[in-house]
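Subject: design request, 521 residues
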């Protein structure tokens, strides 16, 4: 995170020094500057900057078309943005809450030498307020009481802090184990008995803060490839949409998916598959322009978010990337191989609320690129008729009518994007096998009761496996309660999963939903 914070602060300084040589700064320039601080600051842990910028943004006079540098400087220097910009950008902010002002000052004096910035509150209420406004990295709470009659503000603070993974450390005169455990039960993080050993406290604070920053980093950056995650796309996408709504500044979203990636894994192993994913991420990161964003959505799907780029410009760029990438050589046991990708592009052309609407459009174009040969790029065309969602047929075979309906009702609720489901029910194995349920190149899920009069589930399963392509048909067996032999038989006969009776209806649904997602996506 520190790397991004440093870069971010450098960029602020750079813009200000550029403006110094400019005669005037337009309203738009200033608006965008503050807007980007507000958006990016919050995403990279500089909440104070973000909050200050947002406040300035809200107070910006829309009738003032131009600014001169001196005004802006005064205007911003008065805020935390510049003057209080710490030299060491990693200074952590500690909020100390204590009823005693002298003790507050005492803690401040002892912690600041360790490089922390300390702010204080003398009531829990004020502490809660500062927690919201200042987003401290750690809270020290001087709380010399037991917890039985603890005020509601204490729980409010501990819940908020818990949700944001901000440690709350108690400093107290009370050394009883019981009281300490009560504190932990309330979600408070650490407990120090006074007199406090400040050296130990400083180390504890530092460890906790580091842990949190690793966590924050891990949800923002993809572990395997180091590019941004889906979560960041949502943040940055929302910011781009706001800019579009205000200024009509267009942007494009490109969705890319490696072709036949499953085969790479199957042929060369997952480790090589991972290298290809890293290679692709590095390839994109190396070629993109500054300001473009690379995101791994998951699996072998990546997004490029291209500000100020229309779909034709994006097309030229991605086509160049595509042609270059197919020449990139990967190796397995010194044997070279290459990989291609397909892409779908969508440009923002109308006001929308969520970035997902744009990625859904790009997905339609990508899907069309896949269907029509792969290794190609297509732009989403709002007038095109995209092929309907792929149909998955679910067959429920159970002689118990009530159970059949219950399973049917649950499976009506499953949802996998890009697929629509139809459900067929059968009262026994014979009826199922005699019906013309199978269609080549479609996907099927068969929920099959193990114990049925006539043909039992195992026989039906073995007929399915010997007469139809295995990959197109998933089979879930409903077996008797924890009869291991039945389970082993079912799996040996080719069942993909089993569910033991009796089952909770929503558990059945969740389990099948997971299986479908894993297999279809
Ligand atoms: P298509 O051209 O239609 O996109 O075919 P495909 O084989 O690329 O697509 P499919 O969706 O069938 O397979 C994607 C595969 O990606 C399946 C999954 O095992 C693999 N995969 C997902 N995440 C990872 C990962 O982190 N590492 C590796 N090595 N493989 C992954
Ligand atoms: Mg793929």
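Subject: RE: design request

Done. Sequence follows.
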């Amino acid at each position: 995170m520190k790397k991004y914070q440093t870069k971010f602060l450098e960029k602020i300084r750079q813009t200000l020094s550029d403006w110094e040589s400019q005669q005037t700064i337009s309203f738009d320039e200033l608006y965008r500057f503050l807007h980007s601080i507000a958006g990016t600051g919050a995403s990279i842990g500089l909440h104070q900057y973000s909050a200050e910028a947002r406040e300035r943004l809200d107070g910006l006079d829309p009738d003032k078309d131009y600014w001169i540098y001196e005004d802006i400087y005064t205007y911003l220097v008065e805020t935390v943005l510049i003057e209080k910009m710490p030299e060491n950008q990693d200074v952590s902010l500690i909020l100390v809450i204590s009823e005693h002002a002298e003790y507050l000052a005492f803690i401040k004096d002892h912690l600041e030498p360790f490089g922390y910035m300390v702010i204080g509150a003398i009531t829990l209420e004020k502490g809660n307020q500062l927690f919201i406004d200042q987003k401290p990295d750690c809270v020290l709470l001087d709380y010399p009481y037991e917890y039985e009659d603890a005020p509601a503000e204490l729980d409010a603070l501990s819940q908020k802090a818990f949700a944001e993974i901000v440690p709350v450390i108690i400093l107290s005169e009370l050394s009883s184990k019981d009281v300490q455990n009560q504190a932990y039960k309330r979600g408070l993080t650490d407990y120090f008995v006074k007199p406090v050993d400040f050296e130990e406290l400083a180390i504890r604070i530092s460890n906790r803060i580091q842990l949190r920053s690793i966590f924050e980093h891990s949800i923002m950056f993809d572990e395997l490839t180091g590019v941004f995650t889906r979560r960041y796309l949502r943040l940055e996408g929302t910011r781009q949409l706001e800019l579009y709504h205000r200024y009509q500044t267009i942007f494009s979203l490109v969705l890319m998916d490696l072709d036949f990636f499953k085969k790479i894994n199957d042929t060369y192993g997952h480790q090589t598959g991972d290298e290809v994913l890293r290679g692709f991420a590095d390839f994109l990161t190396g070629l993109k322009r500054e300001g473009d964003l690379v995101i791994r959505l998951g699996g072998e799907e990546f997004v490029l978010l291209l500000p100020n780029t229309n779909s034709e410009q994006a097309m030229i760029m991605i086509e160049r990337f595509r042609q270059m990438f197919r020449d990139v050589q990967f190796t397995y046991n010194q044997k070279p191989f290459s990989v291609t990708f397909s892409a779908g592009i969508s440009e923002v052309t109308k006001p929308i609320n969520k970035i997902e609407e744009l990625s859904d459009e790009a997905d339609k174009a990508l899907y069309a690129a896949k269907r029509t040969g792969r290794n190609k790029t297509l732009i989403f065309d709002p007038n095109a008729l995209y092929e309907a969602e792929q149909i998955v047929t679910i067959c429920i075979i159970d002689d118990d009518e009530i159970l059949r309906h219950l399973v049917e009702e649950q499976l009506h609720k499953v949802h996998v994007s890009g697929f629509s489901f139809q459900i067929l029910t059968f009262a026994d194995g014979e009826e199922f096998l005699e019906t013309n349920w199978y269609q080549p190149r479609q996907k099927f899920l068969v929920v099959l009761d193990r114990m049925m009069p006539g043909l039992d589930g195992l026989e039906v399963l073995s007929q399915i496996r010997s007469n139809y392509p295995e990959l197109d048909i998933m089979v879930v067996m409903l077996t008797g309660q924890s009869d291991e032999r039945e389970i082993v038989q079912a799996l040996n006969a080719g069942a993909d999963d089993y569910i033991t009776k009796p089952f909770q209806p929503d558990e059945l649904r969740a389990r099948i939903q997971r299986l479908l997602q894993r297999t279809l996506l």
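The radius of gyration is 30 Å.
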